[in-house]
Amino acid sequence: MERDVEAPIGALRVERATLRDVPEISALNNLFAPDGLTLPRSEAFVANHVDDYRIIRAADGSVLGCVALDEYSPSLVELVSLAVLPKAQHRGIGKQLIEAAAQLAKKRGYPEVFSVSLADQLFLHMGFEHSSLEKYPEKIARYAKISRSELSISRKFLFTRRLAA
Q1: What is the Cα–Cα distance from 144 to 130, expressed in whole angstroms?
Q2: How far, in Å, CA of 116 to CA of 140, rounded?
Q3: Can you give the pTM of this predicted structure?
Q4: Per-residue pLDDT tens for 96-132?
């Protein structure tokens, strides 16, 4: 598998997730949940949202990275569950996944996409701008349902990117 990770970035394509990817996506996402980098995702959640996930697969078929869109309303969507295996990080996979999610949101007709993340330089590099949680009462309501502690995102940043029509 090390050879797969070392493949040129251009050789690693973003593709739609399938139901057979569900266990790997859930495990990859949950690898980062204990540190608060992602919210925990059950296999049932991933399966119910599989059409919203995009992945990058290694040559052996395993999942190297994932990202998803989470719709709040017909005009508001969040980029969530961005995760890349530690051994595949720092190779541009996260950038490819962010761009794929933004393009999917644009294709689906959303005027913007937002994300909450610690990776401020990554999102700024990808055309996102700093924003404020207060602009997204839907997100505040969702956090309140999940956990009151999620409302204190002092270490995290909120980013938004307008999508051209």
Answers
A1: 22
A2: 12
A3: 0.86
A4: 999 999 999 999 999 999 998 887 889 999 999 999 8
Length of the chain: 165
* C-alpha distance from residue 130 to each of 3, 34, 117, 122, 124 (Å): 37, 25, 11, 12, 8
Tokens of 17: 């997730």
pLDDT (mean) for 134-163: 72
Rg (CA), the chain: 15
The one-letter code for the residue type at 114 is F
End-to-end CA distance of the chain: give it in Å, rounded: 40
For the chain, give me the number of helices (H) and strands (E)?
6, 7
- Residue 88's nearest CA partner among 165, 162, 164, 12 is 12
Task: Give the chain's domains with CATH numbers.
Answer: 2-162 (3.40.630.30)
